[in-house]
Specification:
- The complex is a heterodimer of chains A (about 120) and B (about 500).
- Chain A has about 120 residues and is mostly helical.
- Chain A has helices spanning about 5-30, 35-40, 60-80, 85-110.
- Chain A starts with 5 loop residues before the first helix and ends in an 8-residue tail after the last helix.
- Chain B is mostly helical and about 500 residues long.
- Chain B has a domain at about 275-490.
- Chain B has helices spanning about 1-25, 30-55, 75-100, 105-120, 125-145, 150-185, 190-195, 200-220, 230-235, 240-260, 275-295, 300-320, 325-355, 370-375, 375-390, 395-410, 415-440, 455-475, 475-490.
- Classes of the chains: A mainly alpha (about 120), B mainly alpha (about 500).
Chain lengths: ~120, ~500
């Protein structure tokens, strides 16, 4: 089974050799004339302004993570709905159990005020 | 009905966690949450005990779940250890959190969720449930480590733990993927069958063994995968440290025994010449030696206890190596050791909590100087738990070490046992150093003195652990017999 993958391995080795040869060749053979202008950080042709760190409100993070949680919940519900009949009462019970857990989480974030944007 | 009964410990923990979450948001009063969490742990432990009494063989229909979740005596024994550890941690939190002004109810829900994961880990019958349990347990532990939000040390410890932990989990699941590729099964029973028949792809399986080994050793903080432990343990609020040292470590060992003894339990993987035992023995020796040498040099008692918990993982790994020769005896010794380690460590951290109060946590040896004279009621239990950790005879810790070393000698691992023995002598040095400070030193003039706090919760936790430390030290036979039964059933 390993032998099947030998050509892929060969390509991997060859491609890294060629890429490596080009890069080292360029850095040894190419001429370099560094000027002050060339060494400046490049950003869309205009000079960069402002600090490097931009502070974002933690509210964005909270909203995004809550969205992911309840979105993933929907991902579970879809295949369940498609297979609803074949899963029977056990499937119904399991889904209600799952939804109950998510509802508890929803009540929790609601009462904690995580859904309020202003404040 | 048998199925619901068999799952009842897990269900009680899960429902309890959700109820506590609701209690936290709907009621302003937080005093009762610790008691609630303790009761949930006690109920779950009691149900695990009653399933043990009824006997899993008398519960029809539980095979339906066994490809994913196994309910056998091994699971139940670990369920009881984990519930005990969780109950002790939540009692300690009930005193510690209000005292240090970080009283938030989420602590107890997180404890319960993490324990849910650990119990799932103990009962897992499939690589997928192993991973789910591991992640549920670890996520709770990461959040608990970061619980002191205002403290940079807490955040630093949590970040280190989280990054290294997720990396180790990735390595572990890579190993699981290779196991699936090599055998075509994710259920442990199926993998065991394929391995026994010799039809598995051997080079793949060997790589898988290496990766899984790293993941397993990381979770029990064996050297050289221990780097996160001291920082995470020191940064976390002390009840969370207790929980990590006690329950997360037990969960890690449950996973290690389950995975190594089933997936890599065939004659070839368990042999000294071509399997994991020599690597595990190396890790055990490194873990004991490095942890003991570094622990002796610590100035902070909390950090010393963190290294001590690494050292104890080393002794436990000696027991895991010994499963090679006598599977039942050695796994029973490991399980019994985990129980004695749980009560002694929870007690030691609890006594450390008791010695400090708001704004002045007892941290260094100096803080404890003269405690034996000033506050004998706080110093005495501390001394008892440290003696138990050191393995001095009438305590539980002695019999824990005794059975593990006995299993190692019976298996013919003489060199390993001698190294472990020398290490436990080195270990006694730093445990006794605390006693020396408490009983034979006086605080330097003008130095800040830690004043013990007053809390019914912490006292209750200390009394409970002290009773168990003494009871297990005086009469270990009955509990050891239970451990042997648990080990026998998992081997079959």
């Amino acid at each position: 089974m390993i032998a099947t993958y030998a050509p892929i391995f060969l390509i991997l080795v060859l491609s890294s050799l060629i890429a490596g040869a080009f890069f080292t060749g360029a850095s040894f053979l190419g001429t370099k004339k560094p000027t002050h202008e060339k060494m400046l950080p490049f950003e869309c042709g205009s000079e960069s302004t402002g600090g490097r760190h931009v502070k974002l409100s933690v509210k964005f993070y909270l909203t995004a993570i809550l969205f992911v949680v309840f979105d993933v919940e929907a991902v579970f519900v879809y295949p369940w709905a498609v297979q609803f009949r074949s899963l029977g009462w056990l499937g119904l019970g399991s889904m209600f159990g799952f939804l109950a857990v998510v509802v508890v989480a929803l009540i929790y974030v609601w009462k904690k005020g995580a859904l309020e944007w202003e404040s | 009905m048998g199925l619901v009964f068999a799952l009842s410990p897990l269900l009680i923990i899960a429902v309890g966690a959700l109820l506590l979450m609701m209690a936290e948001v709907f009621f302003k009063q937080r005093n009762g949450l610790a008691l609630g969490a303790t009761l949930v742990f006690a109920t779950a432990g009691a149900f695990a005990g009653s399933i043990w009494m009824v006997g899993v063989e008398n519960l029809p229909g539980i095979e339906a779940l066994s490809p994913w979740l196994i309910t056998d005596r091994f699971t139940l024994f670990f369920d009881m250890i984990l519930c005990l550890g969780g109950a002790l941690a939540s009692l300690l939190a009930g005193g510690y959190l209000p005292e240090h002004n970080i009283d938030r109810g989420e602590f107890y829900s997180l404890l319960l969720f993490a324990t849910f994961g650990a119990m799932m880990l103990a009962g897992s019958g499939d690589l997928l449930t192993v991973f789910l349990g591991l992640e549920t347990m670890s996520l709770g532990a990461y959040a608990l480590t970061a619980f002191r939000r205002a403290s940079p040390r807490s955040i630093e410890g949590a970040l280190k733990y989280y990054l290294l932990g997720s990396f180790a989990a990735a390595v572990l699941i890579y190993g699981f993927a290779l196991i699936y590729g090599a055998t075509g099964h994710t259920d442990l029973a199926g993998i065991t069958q394929v391995m026994a028949s010799g039809k598995a792809e051997m080079p793949l399986m060997l790589m898988a063994l290496g990766l899984v080994f790293v993941g397993l050793v990381f979770k029990v903080s064996g050297v050289p995968f221990h780097m996160w432990t001291p920082d995470a343990y020191e940064g976390a609020p002390t009840p969370a440290t207790t929980y990590m040292a006690v329950a997360v470590k037990s969960g890690g060992f449950a996973m290690m025994l389950r995975v190594l003894l089933t997936v890599f339990g065939d004659a070839q993987s368990m042999s000294w010449s071509s399997g994991w035992p020599p690597a595990m023995a190396m890790v055990a020796v490194l873990t004991m030696t490095v942890a003991n040498l570094v622990a002796g040099r610590q100035e902070s008692v909390k950090r010393m206890l963190a290294y001590s918990s690494i050292a104890h993982a080393g002794y436990l790994l000696v027991g895991v190596v010994a499963t090679m020769r006598s599977q039942t005896q050695a796994s029973a010794a490991v399980m019994f050791y985990l129980l004695t380690y749980t009560v002694s460590t929870a007690g030691a951290f609890g006594a450390l909590i008791l010695c400090g109060s708001r704004g002045a946590e007892a941290v260094s040896y100096e803080d404890l100087a003269g405690l034996g004279r000033r506050h004998p009621a706080a110093a005495l239990p501390f001394a008892l738990f440290l003696l138990s950790l050191a393995g001095i005879p009438p305590t539980a810790g002695f019999f824990g070490k005794w059975f593990v070393f006995h299993a190692a000698i019976d298996g013919g691992f003489y060199a390993l046992t001698i190294i472990a023995f020398i290490n436990s002598v080195i270990g006694a040095y730093y445990y006794l150093r605390v006693l020396v400070y408490m009983y034979m030193r006086e605080p330097a003039a003008g130095a800040p003195v830690a004043i013990p706090m007053k809390s019914g919760y912490v006292t209750a936790a200390l009394v409970l652990s002290a009773i168990l430390v003494i009871a297990l030290g005086l009469a270990p036979a009955g509990t050891l017999d239970m451990a042997v039964q648990a080990a026998t059933h998992s081997a079959g």
